Amino acid sequence: MSFIRFSQVSLRSFTFFLTLPFLFWHAYGYSQPHIYTPAEGLVETKPMVIPGNIFVSGILPSKNRVPSHLKEFGFFLSGLDEEDILEVADFSTFVSVRYQDTDLMEIAEKLGVKIWVSLGSVFFEGDGKKSKREDYKERWQRAKRGLLPYKNIIYAFDPLDEPFHKSLLPDNELKAYLEEIGSFLKLDFPKAKRAITFTSYTVERPRFQLVIPENFNLFGVDHYVGVDFQGEIVNRLIMKTEHMNAKYYLIPRAFKTTSHNYRYLQQAELVLRARQAYNFAIANSKIELIYPFQWKSFFWDSEHYYGVDSFPELRREYEKIGRSISKDR
Question: pTM above 0.90?
Answer without folding.
Answer: no
